[in-house]
C-alpha cells in the first residue's frame, strides 16, 4: 500500500511476533503465500486485535507543533533532542529527512492493513459464533476509523464544510493487499464520511461492557464518533454521542472515570510514590482509569527530554492550587541547580500519551458542545464538576462573568483543554479545527520561540496556514510519483 506495501511485507514477521506475545503460540499465523497474513479461525482474528502494534504507535510530531510550547537551549539541540521534532517545532515544510523510511503514515497504514484483513475476512472465518464475528468486525471498523481520523488530521486540511469536498485528503484503502501500487488521495469529505460510516456500522455490535482498554467498546466508539463530529463542526450530532459515551461508562467491568487528583497525589494514591527525580508515578496507561481506548504513543516531553516546555502564557493559565502543576517541573531533567526562565515548565511523571479515547477528553468536548449550543448552565455544571477533580473546590468555580457569556465560556473551555493536555499533542489538533472556526480562530497562536536558560530570546518561528497540514514524507512521494504533495 502506497510505498508502505514494501514496508508491510517487512513488517509481517514482526506482526506475528507481536501477536505471538499475546497468543504464546508459534503456529498461530503463517505467511503463506509469502507477503500475506493468514488467519483462519475466528479466534485468530480476535487475537489480532490484541496486538501491541495496534495499541502502541510512534506518533510524534504533534507534541512539538502546538502553540502552548516553547523551546529552551541548550536542551533543544543535538543529542538532547530529536531532529524531526526540532523541524516540527520550527514548522518546517519537511520534518523528515529524505533518508528516513518511517513516519506516522507508515505506522497508521500498517495498522489499516490489519484492520482491513479482519474486516474483509472475519465473517467467513471458522469455528466462531455469528455474534462474536460481528463484534470482532465492529472493533476492526472502529480501529480503522481511528487510524483514518489520525491520518486525515496529519495530512488533510482541517475540515471546512465549504471546501472539504475538494480538499485533498489521504488515500482510502479498504483491502489488505500489499500488491497494490496505484493510489490517489480521496477528499477530506470522503475520508470523514468514511470514518463516520465505519463508526456508525460498528456501534450496534461493539461490546456494551468495557473490559479491556486496548479493545474498543461501545463507549469508546461513541466517544470517537462524537469527537469526529466536533472536528466537523457538527456540535449537535457530537453531543448525542458524547452523552452516550458518558452514560456507557457506568457499565464498565474495570475502573473507568476521572481521577481525583488531590486524592491520587496524596499518600497511598494512584500517582504515588512521587519521585524527586521523575515526578508522580503515572507512567503506565494500561491500568489508568481515565483511558477508555488505549492508542498510546511515547511522549518524550512528559518525562525524558527537556528541550520543549510549556511557554509562559500557558503556565499562566493555571491557578496556584491546580494539582496538574505537579505533573510539571521547573527543572530540566536531572538538573536541580537552575530553573527554566520566565516561569516555563517541563512535563514529567508520565512518558506516554493516549491518543485514543480518554475520559477527560469526553467531558471537555461535551462541555464545549453544550456551550456552543448555548446550554450555558449545562456547560458550567460539567466544567465545574470536572475542575473539582483537578483543583481545590474554591478554585474550581468558574468566574461569574465568564459563566454568563457563551463566547467567554467556550474560550474558557478551550483553555481548560490546554491546561489538561499541555505537552500531550492535543493542542495541535485543536488548533487545526479552530483555525477554520469563524468565532474562535483568534484563539490559535502562530509563534514558536526558542530561549536560552537565561530567558533571552534566540529565535522566533511563525506558523503559516499551510503548515496546519503536514507534508507527506519524501520517501512516500518519491516512491509514489502520482501522489499529490501538500504545499
UniProtKB/TrEMBL annotation:
Residues 361-487 form the RagB/SusD domain. Its main location: membrane. It comes from Chitinophaga ginsengisegetis. Gene3D superfamilies: 1.25.40.390. Belongs to the SusD family. GO terms for cellular component: cell outer membrane. It comes from the Bacteria. This is SusD family protein. SUPFAM superfamilies: TPR-like. The keyword Ribonucleoprotein does not apply.
Amino acid at each position: 500500500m502506497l510505498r508502505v506495501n514494501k514496508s508491510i511485507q517487512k513488517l509481517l514477521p514482526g506482526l506475528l511476533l507481536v501477536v505471538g506475545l499475546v497468543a504464546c503460540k508459534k503456529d498461530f499465523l503463517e505467511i503463506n503465500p509469502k507477503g500475506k497474513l493468514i488467519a483462519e479461525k475466528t479466534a485468530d482474528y480476535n487475537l489480532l486485535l490484541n496486538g501491541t502494534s495496534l495499541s502502541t504507535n510512534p506518533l510524534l510530531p504533534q507534541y512539538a507543533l502546538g502553540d502552548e510550547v516553547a523551546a529552551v537551549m541548550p536542551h533543544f539541540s543535538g543529542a538532547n533532542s530529536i531532529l524531526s521534532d526540532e523541524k516540527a517545532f520550527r514548522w518546517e515544510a519537511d520534518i523528515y529527512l529524505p533518508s528516513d523510511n518511517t513516519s506516522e503514515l507508515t505506522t497508521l497504514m500498517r495498522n489499516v492493513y490489519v484492520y482491513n484483513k479482519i474486516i474483509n475476512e472475519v465473517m467467513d472465518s471458522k469455528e466462531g459464533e455469528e455474534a462474536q464475528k460481528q463484534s470482532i468486525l465492529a472493533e476492526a471498523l472502529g480501529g480503522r476509523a481511528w487510524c483514518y481520523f489520525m491520518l486525515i488530521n496529519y495530512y488533510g486540511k482541517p475540515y471546512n464544510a465549504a471546501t472539504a469536498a475538494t480538499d485533498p485528503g489521504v488515500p482510502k484503502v479498504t483491502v489488505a493487499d500489499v500488491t497494490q501500487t496505484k493510489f490517489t488521495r480521496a477528499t477530506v469529505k470522503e475520508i470523514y464520511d468514511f470514518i463516520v460510516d465505519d463508526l456508525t456500522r460498528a456501534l450496534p455490535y461493539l461490546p456494551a461492557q468495557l473490559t479491556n482498554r486496548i479493545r474498543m467498546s461501545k463507549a469508546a466508539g461513541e466517544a470517537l464518533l462524537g469527537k469526529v463530529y466536533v472536528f466537523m463542526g457538527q456540535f449537535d450530532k457530537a453531543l448525542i454521542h458524547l452523552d452516550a459515551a458518558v452514560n456507557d461508562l457506568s457499565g464498565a467491568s474495570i475502573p473507568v472515570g476521572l481521577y481525583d487528583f488531590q486524592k491520587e497525589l496524596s499518600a497511598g494514591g494512584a500517582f504515588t510514590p512521587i519521585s524527586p527525580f521523575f515526578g508522580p508515578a503515572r507512567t503506565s496507561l494500561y491500568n489508568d482509569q481515565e483511558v477508555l481506548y488505549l492508542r498510546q504513543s511515547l511522549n518524550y516531553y512528559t518525562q525524558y527530554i527537556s528541550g520543549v516546555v510549556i511557554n509562559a502564557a500557558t503556565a499562566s493559565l493555571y491557578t496556584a492550587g491546580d494539582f496538574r502543576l505537579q505533573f510539571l517541573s521547573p527543572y530540566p531533567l536531572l538538573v536541580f541547580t537552575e530553573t527554566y526562565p520566565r516561569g516555563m515548565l517541563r512535563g514529567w511523571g508520565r512518558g506516554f500519551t493516549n491518543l485514543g479515547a480518554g475520559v477527560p477528553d469526553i467531558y471537555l468536548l461535551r462541555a464545549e458542545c453544550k456551550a456552543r449550543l448555548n446550554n450555558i448552565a449545562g456547560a458550567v455544571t460539567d466544567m465545574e464538576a470536572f475542575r473539582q477533580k483537578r483543583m481545590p473546590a474554591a478554585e474550581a468555580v468558574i468566574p461569574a462573568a465568564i459563566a454568563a457569556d457563551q463566547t467567554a465560556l467556550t474560550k474558557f473551555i478551550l483553555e481548560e483543554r490546554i491546561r489538561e493536555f499541555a505537552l500531550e499533542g492535543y493542542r495541535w489538533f485543536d488548533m487545526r479545527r479552530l483555525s477554520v472556526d469563524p468565532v474562535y480562530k483568534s484563539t490559535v497562536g502562530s509563534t514558536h520561540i526558542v530561549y536560552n536558560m537565561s530567558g533571552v530570546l534566540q529565535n522566533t518561528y511563525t506558523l503559516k496556514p499551510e503548515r496546519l497540514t503536514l507534508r507527506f514524507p519524501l520517501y512516500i512521494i518519491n516512491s509514489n510519483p502520482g501522489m499529490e504533495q501538500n504545499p
